[in-house]
Every structure is written in structure tokens, then in C-alpha cells.
């Protein structure tokens, strides 16, 4: 009877511990997967990690950063929070996060082809 009582106490203790751990552990403490880790990396962590790797360069745009990160086999070199994530697969998302954090510039917007054609025609006619 004593063994059975101690097993029950142990089971109840473990159950209570797991319940308390699940209750007090924020969901964002352990993001679900690589996409969530990339999308939610703290701006200061991203900026510091990029700076340690010589990035961003002056006037760097989102596309420039994505291109530079695309060859990185492990984004863990940028931040331990990104350990095991391939730059090839997540370079664009990480560059988007860098734009959102104000670390790099947005890509310049190209005018619509029709507007660009009209601008060229206008220049030709005015000369």
C-alpha cells in the first residue's frame, strides 16, 4: 500500500509541475518553427548579429541583404536564435525583418512600365 501511495504522490507532483510549467511559460518563449523564429527575432539581436558579420553595408537594401544572406548555410552565424536555419531558404524573410526593424532600406520602387514608357516618350518629344 505504501508503494502505491508514493506512486500516486509522484504522479500528482509531476502532473502539477507540468501544468505550472505550461501555464507560466509564454508561448513566444519557444517559437514553433524556423519561420516563426525568423519573423519574430528581436531587432536588437538581428542588428547585432548582422553587425558582427559585417552587415549591413551602407545604403544596403532589402534585396542586397537577401542576396548576401542567401549564401549563408547556417543563419546561426547571425544569431544563436536562428541556429540551424538555412540562409538559402529564409534569406528573404530575414531581409524583410531587417526592413521592419529599420536596419536596411526598402527596395526602390520601379515605376509601372506604362508610366516609364510615357516618361521616355515625353523626354523624346521635348528634345
From TrEMBL:
Transmembrane segments: none annotated. The keyword Signal applies. The keyword Signal applies. InterPro entries: Alpha_h_PorB/PorC (IPR041910), Porin_PorB/PorC (IPR021114). Residues 1-29 form the signal peptide. Keywords: Signal. This is Secreted protein.
Amino acid at each position: 500500500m505504501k508503494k502505491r501511495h508514493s506512486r500516486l504522490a509522484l504522479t500528482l507532483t509531476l502532473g502539477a509541475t507540468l501544468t505550472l510549467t505550461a501555464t507560466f511559460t509564454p508561448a513566444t518563449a519557444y517559437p514553433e518553427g524556423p519561420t516563426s523564429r525568423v519573423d519574430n527575432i528581436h531587432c536588437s539581436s538581428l542588428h547585432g548579429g548582422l553587425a558582427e558579420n559585417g552587415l549591413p553595408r551602407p545604403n544596403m537594401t532589402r534585396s542586397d541583404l537577401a542576396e548576401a544572406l542567401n549564401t549563408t548555410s547556417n543563419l546561426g552565424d547571425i544569431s544563436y536564435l536562428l541556429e540551424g536555419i538555412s540562409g538559402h531558404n529564409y534569406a528573404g524573410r530575414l531581409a524583410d525583418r531587417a526592413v521592419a526593424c529599420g536596419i536596411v532600406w526598402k527596395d526602390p520602387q520601379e515605376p509601372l512600365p506604362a508610366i516609364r514608357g510615357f516618361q521616355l516618350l515625353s523626354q523624346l518629344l521635348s528634345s
